[in-house]
Amino acid sequence: xxxxxxxxxxxxxxxxxxxxxxxxxxxxxxxxxxxxxxxxxxxxxxxxxxxxxxxxxxxxxxxxxxxxxxxxxxxxxxxxxxxxxxxxxxxxxxxxxxxxxxx
Length: 103
Ligand SMILES: [Zn+2]
Description:
The chain has one domain (about 15-95). It is about 50% helix and about 10% strand. The chain has helices at about 15-20, 40-65, 70-90, and strands at about 25-30, 35-40, 90-95. Strand 1 (about 25-30) and strand 2 (about 35-40) form a beta hairpin. The model has no long low-confidence stretch (mean pLDDT about 85).
């Protein structure tokens, strides 16, 4: 689970899900109310994980010849699994970190 880099309190799964639902890299710590950001390491993890997930969703149903209903169910399952796993993959930072340096 992610730990706030300001107050060093570990966020619960529910707190992490609530904080990460905002479509922004800035999240507010539920304990100290300070801004926390997704770490560079987390950006890297998602950059590797997302294409793998897309390949699974697009090609696996064709390879094992799944029906359309089974494919949709499989895609929904993967989306829910990914969202549920987000708190386990997320690391926090006190400052906004970019995957690629701006200069
Ligand atoms: Zn905090």
